Each structure stands twice: as C-alpha cells, then as structure tokens.
Write the structure tokens for this entry.
Amino acid sequence: MHDHRKLGRELELFDTDPLIGSGLPYWLPAGAAVRHALEQYLRELERQAGYQHVYSPVLGKRELYEISGHWSHYRDVMYPPMELGGEAVVLRPSLCPHHALIYRSRGRSYRELPLRLAELGGQYRAELSGVLGGLTRVRAMQLNDAHVFCTPDQVAAEADAALAMIRQAYAALGIEPARYRLSLPGAGGKYVGSPRIWERAAAMLAGVLAGAGLAYETGEGEAAFYGPKIDVQVADCAEREATLSTVQIDFYQPEQFGLHYIGADGARHRPVMVHRSILGSMERVVAHLIERHGGAFPDWLAPEQLVVLPVTDALVPSAASITGRAAALGLRARLAGPELGTLGSRIRSARLVPYQAVIGEKESAAGQVAVRLRDGRRLPPLPADAALAGIAAHVAGRRAGLWDAAA
Ligand SMILES: [Zn+2]
C-alpha cells in the first residue's frame, strides 16, 4: 500500500501550512471533490435508513462536558477552555452532548423512537505535535456521527442496522475491515456506570456480531468510558490498525442528561443512546481510501471521473461539446487537449482517471467516442451520449468496480 501522506500531496488532495499549524490539513480541490462525494453518499444512506440530520455548534460550555463525563475522563486530549465573558468555552471533543440536548429540547413520546439524529460535524483533539501527520492524526476532524435514542428493546435492532450500513458502505468504497473488535473495559477506574449495565450492553453487541455471522476479537481496555463498542478496524500502509467505524451502546449519558420519554404506559422512561459512525472522520476515511486504492478511487469518488482527449486541435470543439454534456450529467469531466502533449503522454498523466474518452476523426464524424478504462481495457466506439449515460449511471450506482459497456 501507499503512504497517504506522500501520495496525498503528489495528487494534490490535501496539504498543510506551518502558519495554519500542524495537524490542521487543508483540502485542495481534488481532495474536496472526494470528500464532497463521500458526504453526499453518507447523507443519502442515512436519510434512507431513517436518520434526520442536524447541525450543532463546534463549541460548548465546559459545564456541558462536565455533565457528559468528557471533562473528567477525556480532558487530556481536549483543548484548553477559552474564557469568554466570564464563561469557559471549549472546542468539543465529541458531538454526543449536543445531540443529547437536542433530544431534550422538548418532551418525547415512545412513538417517536427510535429517534436517529445524524451530523457531519467538527470535533477537536489536542494531539501532541510529535504524533501528527497527514490526515490520520489531526487536531480538527469532520466526524460522520449519529446518535440513536431508543427504548432498551430497540437497541439490538438499531446496532444491527448500523453494522449493516457499515458493511454496505465498505462494499461501495472497495475497502475491507482488518477485523471486527468487541471493545470492552479493562483494568483501571476510567469507566462509568455499574458492571451489570456494562455486561448487558456487551452481551447485546456480541449478539449483534454473532447474528451477522462475523468473526471478532475482544479488546480489553478499548471501550469508551461510557460503554462498550463494536469497532471496525482497518490497516494502514505500515500494517498499523486503526478504528474506522464504530457502534456503541450507552446507558450512561442518557442518565447524566436526565433524558426521558413517555411510554405507552404514560410513565417516564429512560432512553438508551446508540452512538455510531459509518465511516469515522472524513480525514481518516480519505487517508485509508488513498492508501487502499493508491489514488485510483472508485469512479463515484474520483476527483476527475472522465478526461476527454481530442487527437488533434481540429477536434477540440467536438471534445469540448462532449465534456460539457458530461458535466451536465453531473460528471466531473475535463478536456485535455493537444496543447498538453502527445496523446500517449496525456493518457499517461490521466492514468488514475477512471474513464478516458479519445476523440479521433472517425469518432468525431460518427458522433462516437472510444472509451478507455483506467485498468487498460478499451471499449468499442460508442455513440457519445450512450457512453456518457452509461458512465453516469454507473457512477450514480456507487459501486467499487468500473463501468464496462459490454458487461
Ligand atoms: Zn457519541
């Protein structure tokens, strides 16, 4: 595998500047195109699965994190508070407390549950500068996060559905887990809540993994401070493992925030929070995709999906028309004319672009294109609009392979 830090800069996906600071990468246009495609995919996937999206501020009062437990259990990786008009405000280390307050903003009935709140939102970690690099160790990240507020009876089904979404997204992205891990508490006093509740939550998650037929290992000491979790581990180019996706069961924060719903019996009940992330942070997943695919992203994610290559200057207008029609279909298409070099060199420099449409005299006269695939396959000349429609349909289907008119 490739090192995403090196390849990410070569492909002009992201970079850093000492004046912004270490661990604070910025996204260049090509990287931003990949991220935007991912964000759009996640929002659609979540909407189809019954999630509702919210936005919440990246800051909160210190008191909010004292209630959630982050301040006492997580403070060493939190930014120091900012004093503002007599109040202490911190950059948030997680989105959970904000979502708990959104749940609490009005009364809730059992009829509304499960209530699934999702957000692609910023969170912050005060990592030491020595460990920062690329997109994997950062001080600011955009998290694909969600919290499902549900009854105890609904927890297993919600965790199961979240795990199924993770597997669906991995198939679309062409990535594979290194392993599934059931993360449990270890020795030491950093865990909150009673052992009985931990055992119950861990048993639910073990049941979800077993029900999905997935082999897993247990990780002692890898749980969140508030509950056990399923972690989906991926390996980087140096075979180091990291958690990309997670499903967590939390009985603690609903208690801390005094959350409740009115049950069918008319009485107040405590909901459970299922925390889940399908693709972790945008930073971590893009780092993994760069390494996994060596920059040759699935077509629906590629910064450029189609490059149009007129053989001669005289064919540039015809190529420009095809590029414009591709863009109108929503494709990220670029015209690469003879001023950029020979046809061979233009094909080589577009080697990571999934589709290359070569326009020669014969094709232009017949209103056709000869499509070359990134993997070296060549398709027979096709009517230009049929080729563009075929590519656009494959891209819309978000699959890991390439479109092949013959298939
Ligand atoms: Zn959470």
In short: The first strand starts at residue 14 and ends at 15. The pocket of zinc ion is lined by residues 94-96, 147, 275 (CB under 6 Å).
